[in-house]
Amino acid sequence: MPRSTNSVASRARRKKIMKLAKGYFGRRKNVWTVAKNAVEKGMLYAYRDRRNNKRNFRSLWIVRINAATRMHGMSYSKFMGQLKANNIELNRKVLADLAVNNPAAFQAIVEKVK
């Protein structure tokens, strides 16, 4: 009996990868083996960088809060310690947004914890 392959499924798998490789440069967009490697590597980077993105944003928020608190004569670590001591539960994202877009509200928070 001859060997049979499921060419419908194989074609669908290849088509899915080639669709993901759309927009790549050179052979990465139209040669199966090159495209497959490029797409796999791209997905690894995407997975890794979704986590790195969270780290980057947290550090950005910390830098912004630090800059704003120093304008009011306080350091970031003392400010965060005082927030916890006074049971003010605002996260870094919200604090950084207040520091940039609403300095008056941020100053009120700083005065409250001093």
From TrEMBL:
Q: Does the keyword Protein transport apply?
A: no
This entry carries the following GO cellular component terms, namely:
ribosome
Record SUPFAM superfamilies? Ribosomal protein L20
Q: What UniProt keywords are attached to this protein's entry?
A: Ribonucleoprotein, Ribosomal protein, RNA-binding, rRNA-binding
Presence of keyword Membrane: no
What the entry lists under Gene3D superfamilies is as follows: 6.10.160.10, Ribosomal protein L20
Pfam family, any one: Ribosomal_L20
Q: What does this protein do?
A: Binds directly to 23S ribosomal RNA and is necessary for the in vitro assembly process of the 50S ribosomal subunit. It is not involved in the protein synthesizing functions of that subunit.
The record's family statement is:
Belongs to the bacterial ribosomal protein bL20 family.
> Which protein is depicted?
Large ribosomal subunit protein bL20
